[in-house]
Amino acid sequence: MPFRNYRTRPLAQNAPFPTDEITRLLDMARDPATGLSLAAEGQVQSCSLDNGRLLLTLAIPRDKAEALSALCPAASRQLETLPGVTVATIMLTAHRPAGAPKQAAQPQGHRPLGGTAPTEGPLLPGVKAVIAVASGKGGVGKSTTAVNLAVGLGMEGLKVGLLDADIHGPSLHRMLGMQGKPEVVDGRLQPVQAWGITAMSLGMLVDEKAAMIWRGPMVMGAVNQLLGDVDWGTPDVLVVDLPPGTGDVQLSLIQKTSLAGAVIVSTPQDIALIDARRAVSMFEKVHVPVLGLIENMSYFCCPNCGHTTELFGHGGARQEAEAMDVPFLGEVPLLADIRASGDSGVPVVIGAPDSEGGRAWRKIAHTLARSLRAGRKA
Ligand SMILES: Nc1ncnc2c1ncn2[C@@H]1O[C@H](COP(=O)(O)OP(=O)(O)OP(=O)(O)O)[C@@H](O)[C@H]1O
């Protein structure tokens, strides 16, 4: 079994990952009827050990996903015989079988992390509302917005979950200051508590460099698992931070959950607004209500003299929202404090709730909370 891109963390003291031993143990959980095994079919994407919790991510052929996921519980038990391992979790992501023709991207059925049987049907049955935070263009502050909105909704008294579905660049765990690996209880990943909400990011589970090169089906497999295999409980709202653009993750999320709506983040720059328009139009085409547009990095306010500069122009998102007939939710300035809060893991709505940035996001969270409570569009 090829071991590529795995993180070398000692399993037992000072020992490297015993790759041959892992392969041998996975092979012991072979299906006697078909001869299939995770060792023969899987490619290791990442492998890590933290406080006795082993997390192994395997890429498997898409057409064997169901048969192989059924082997996960037995394979996990085998891995738990390794020294230093108390709980082993196997996460499966799918890839196209070699030589198979490319197909239009389609989300796959939900495949469990080691422990439970495959399930069908809509994911997130206990979640009352799912809100996507999206942007057409990268780097406009979508993740920063998702974090501050989610925590802001929590401050409004709602029970909130936050999912980082930005598979190619997960960052929420850092913005929330989350460390270590999530717990696994009864084969289900437990979201981590931070600042009054619960959150889960792929960045806590796999090697980020490995995830960066994942292609369509693997990305969608990972999203399905983050939705279906995490014990989200019964939050009032699950905020999902999407990757920029209109690709596989957006498609998977739309097909696998019933989205209550999408919030689009843009800077006032023309180029970002053109992409924001594309994002709005994608959600409208699939009948997902656009809850509104947020203008981030709206203007720069000098912390020394208070002078305001409109670095990327100003007011473009408000005009765009009017032109597209979607609500304008508000503008957030470009502030050094906001950048610093993202790096320090303390969201600005917590660290500086009365700063300009803190006030702006709390106001938007208030508007969204009101509309969620009223069960109607903001
Ligand atoms: N209003 C703001 N003021 C200052 N810095 C900001 C602001 N919004 C975001 N940033 C900073 O800009 C950078 C990019 O933000 P963020 O990661 O939220 O963008 P993104 O749109 O999610 O990016 P990606 O496309 O990579 O997912 C981060 O360093 C963040 O701290």
UniProtKB/TrEMBL annotation:
Keyword Hydrolase among UniProt keywords: yes
Q: Which GO terms describe its biological process?
A: iron-sulfur cluster assembly
A Pfam family in this protein? Answer: ParA
Species the sequence originates in:
Acetobacter vaccinii
Quote the HAMAP family the UniProt record gives.
Mrp_NBP35 (MF_02040)
- Record-linked PANTHER family: IRON-SULFUR PROTEIN NUBPL
Q: Which Gene3D superfamilies match?
A: P-loop containing nucleotide triphosphate hydrolases
Spell out the SUPFAM superfamilies in the cross-references. Answer: Fe-S cluster assembly (FSCA) domain-like, P-loop containing nucleoside triphosphate hydrolases
Q: Where is the composition biased (Low complexity)?
A: 98-109
Q: Which GO terms describe its molecular function?
A: 4 iron, 4 sulfur cluster binding; ATP binding; ATP hydrolysis activity; ATP-dependent FeS chaperone activity; metal ion binding
Note the subunit structure: Homodimer.
Instruction: Give the record's keywords alphabetically.
Output: ATP-binding, Hydrolase, Iron, Iron-sulfur, Metal-binding, Nucleotide-binding
Q: What does this protein do?
A: Binds and transfers iron-sulfur (Fe-S) clusters to target apoproteins. Can hydrolyze ATP.
Q: Cite the residue spans of the region called Disordered.
A: 98-118
Where do the annotations place ATP binding?
Answer: G136, K137, G138, G139, V140, G141, K142, S143
This protein is called Iron-sulfur cluster carrier protein
The text of the family note is: Belongs to the Mrp/NBP35 ATP-binding proteins family.
Q: What residue ranges carry the coiled-coil annotation?
A: none
Recorded hits in InterPro entries, A to Z, give: FSCA_dom_sf, Mrp/NBP35_ATP-bd, NUBPL-like, P-loop_NTPase, YlxH/NBP35
